[in-house]
Predict the structure.
Amino acid sequence: MAYFPDDMPGVEPNMDDAGFWDNCRRRELRFQACDACGMLRHPPSPICPHCHGTGVKWVQAPDEAEVYTYTVVHHASHPAVQSRLPYVVAVLEFPGLPGVRLVTNVTDIPPDRVQVGMQVGLWWDELKEGPPIPRFRPKESAAS
Ligand code: ZN
């Protein structure tokens, strides 16, 4: 079941992040890396900020991450999220992937129990439209 209600708008990939979302359609969380110098970056962009290379490769992310920081949302920025309040928006870091952080939701936990440094596991949220969204939940419940 989708984390947000069915009237939640789906993602509309753009020229820069289409590759990221193509991988999500295959339920693969991959981050963009420069094909020349190897530096990871996210969100995807057409040019490496380090060496200005334009070639890219997509590096598989592990299915676990760590909460770098987070906030608890109490006010609906869109009518579709009203019934979900309060919910957690977190910035996650991935072991072995320096330089990339993913903004997503940490689900399946009361917002007041989320902590910086918490280990979370990937799950794929199937929206009514658009590609699946990578969201995360505490590791102990990630398999359910
Ligand atoms: Zn580069």
In short: The pocket of zinc ion is lined by residues 34, 36-37, 39, 48, 50-51, 53 (CB under 6 Å). The longest strand covers residues 64-73.
